[in-house]
Design goal:
mainly alpha, about 190 residues
Length: about 190
């Protein structure tokens, strides 16, 4: 069963290295090329998250001694993925700043002193709302993944408890069968 985890692990490591290279190259790009590269990277991040979820599910289905080792590796991969996400966010924010600057220049507002305070305030408010919405979505997704993990764990615990109850029932049935057999052999 650990072979499945190792397959996912290999895919994740290759994908992570590829994403790191793409992040480095995205830093050197501007404009539309940078947007395209960021879209590619985001797709890769989604694939990496899916692989981590698969590794998590696979690791949790293994024996406790193997499970502990694999879950420790998984924590490292999650940390690596979070670092990649932070790097992408940093690259995207520089891209957004550049895009906003370009938009101002295209609109003939190259002189920043000519931009009214009202426009600046609206831009700041819009940016703040966008950041708040992004944070709420990110937190919601995190809660969803934690809930999914908890659900998987609960189902596994329930399965183990069911197996224990079935084993206990079989033992009691066997014991009753032996008692009845013994009593039927006793003289009356």
């Amino acid at each position: 069963m650990a072979a499945v985890f190792e397959g996912y692990e290999k895919q994740y490591c290759e994908l992570s290295a590829n994403l790191s290279k793409k992040c480095a190259s995205a830093n050197l790009l501007d404009g539309e090329q940078k947007k395209q590269k960021l879209a590619e990277i985001q797709t890769g991040l989604d694939e990496a998250e899916a692989l981590i979820r698969k590794m998590d599910l696979d690791a949790r289905s293994l024996q406790p001694n193997i499970k502990a080792v694999l879950l420790a590796k998984l924590r490292e991969y999650k940390s690596d993925l979070n670092n990649l996400k932070s790097e992408v966010k940093r690259i995207a924010s520089t891209n957004l700043n550049q895009a906003a600057r370009d938009e101002l220049l295209e609109a003939g507002l190259a002189d920043t002193l000519a931009v009214s305070a009202n426009q600046k305030d609206r831009l700041v408010m819009s940016t703040g709302r966008l950041n708040n919405s992004s944070n709420r979505i990110r937190e919601s997704r995190k809660v969803m993944l934690e809930t999914e993990e908890l659900g998987v764990s609960l189902l596994q615990d329930l399965h183990q408890q069911r197996q224990s109850l079935l084993n206990a029932n079989n033992t009691v049935q066997l014991f009753l069968h032996h008692i009845l057999s013994f009593l039927s052999l006793q003289p009356k």
